[in-house]
Design goal:
- With about 375 residues, this protein is mostly helical.
- The chain folds into 2 domains: about 200 residues, MFS general substrate transporter like domains (Growth Hormone, Chain: A, Up-down Bundle), CATH 1.20.1250; about 170 residues, Growth Hormone, Chain: A.
- It has 15 helices and 2 strands.
- Strands 1-2 form a two-stranded antiparallel sheet.
- α1 runs antiparallel to α7, α5 packs across α14 and α8 runs antiparallel to α9.
């Protein structure tokens, strides 16, 4: 049986909590900075949309490969070193993504960029679990709220720079400078340790971790569905102007960010299980508004409800990982994160197949039913 020994040095409450928040912001900021660069990369190397879709898979593949390795490294060399190396990898590859003009170079850069994102995702969540546990109060929603806020700042900031006439390379160098400054502030107070584990570095999820991972898969699939299909639905089904269709995902993202920034108080007051139950019901109701009411204005409200409902479920699931005893957290966190990434990678494609066979509304209804399944099954998490 795997034995787990958590090192006993308590995190320095204020500084290490602030550093954790900064790292979550860095991760969201760096990831979102890539999104506005995608059209430029496509035009620069002259590929079709289908080839672009295959190219983008490299990012997800790099992330999934790096996640178990990051968990093992955190256990051996600590959170700080893995976070710093991961952020450095993001900083080194972003300019390549903005400048590279050959398909092989972009594939390699995306694999490494994805590896940096996957590794920092795992290491920062392990740090967050340890810091939250030491604090004795809910903090995970706030941490993830900074990730969402970083995503909004990253995507809007790069878009603003590009629209002002900056080149993609210049825009990414600004992003890299911001990450370096933020990392210099955070690194001295990141944890120099993780969990000391006697046992395998890699394992398939089991027990409570398997349930948590399945829930994460559904939640990430939901996010991918809104990201990739909300604008298509608004234009093709609700007749909205294409130039305005981005408001659907914007409503989702803003509601999710606000929900997470307020979420620690909500979790403390109502408890983990109730947050999952009512969050799942709220998100499913949002998809109900989107699909059943023939109005694009109501659809945007529906997407906001989806974001609000989903906002605190994933943070609560990571808190549950820190409480379960079936697997050590340096193995459990990569396991559930990998399942989540599988949902965000495969989910939108699956929705496309369902929409092709039936309709996009039917696909959204299926997602709503899965969310209700999460709400109904939440009490199986006895951690």
């Amino acid at each position: 049986m795997t034995s787990v020994t958590i090192r006993t040095r308590p995190p320095q409450a204020g500084r290490e909590q602030i550093s954790t928040r900064i790292v979550f912001f860095i991760a969201g900021f760096g990831m979102a900075a890539w999104a506005p660069l995608v059209p430029f990369a496509k035009a620069r190397i002259g590929i079709s949309q289908g080839m672009l879709g295959l190219l983008l898979l490299a990012l997800g593949i790099g992330s999934i490969i790096a996640m178990p390795l990051a968990g093992a490294l955190v256990a051996r060399i600590g959170c700080r070193r893995v976070v710093v190396v991961s952020a450095a990898l993001i900083c080194l590859t972003l300019p390549l993504l903005a400048w590279g003009s050959s398909l092989p170079l972009l594939v390699a850069a995306l694999l490494l960029f994805g590896a940096g994102l996957g590794a920092i995702d795992v290491s920062m969540n392990i740090q967050a679990i340890i810091v939250e546990r030491a604090s004795g109060r809910p903090m995970m929603s706030g941490f993830h709220g900074l990730f969402s806020a970083g995503g909004i700042v990253g995507s809007s900031g790069v878009t603003t720079l590009l629209s002002a006439g900056a080149s993609p390379l210049a825009a990414t160098l600004v992003v890299v400078a911001g990450i370096v400054v933020a990392l210099a502030m955070a690194a001295p107070h990141l944890l120099t340790y993780g969990s000391k584990v006697d046992g395998p570095a890699f394992a398939f999820p089991r027990g409570a971790v398997l349930i948590i991972g399945c829930f994460c898969l559904i939640m990430f699939l939901t996010e991918g569905a809104v990201l990739d299909w909300s604008a298509v639905f608004l234009t093709s089904v609700r007749g909205m102007q294409a130039s305005l269709a981005g408001f659907g995902y914007a409503a989702f993202a803003l509601a999710m960010t606000a929900g997470r920034l307020l979420g620690d108080r909500v979790v403390q007051r109502y408890g983990d299980t109730n947050v999952i139950v009512f969050g799942g019901i709220c998100a499913a109701a949002g998809f109900g508004l989107v699909t059943l009411v023939p109005s694009w204005q109501v659809a945007i409200l529906g997407y906001a409800l989806v974001g609000a409902g989903c906002s605190n479920i994933v943070p609560v699931l990571y808190t549950c990982v820190g409480r379960q005893t079936a697997m050590p957290e340096n193995v459990a966190v990569p396991a559930i994160t990998t399942l989540g990434y599988a949902g965000i990678l495969a989910g939108p494609a699956a929705i496309g197949f369902v929409a092709q066979a039936t309709s996009l509304s039917t696909a959204f209804v299926i997602v709503a039913l899965m969310l209700l399944g999460v709400a109904a099954s939440s009490r199986t998490l006895r951690v």
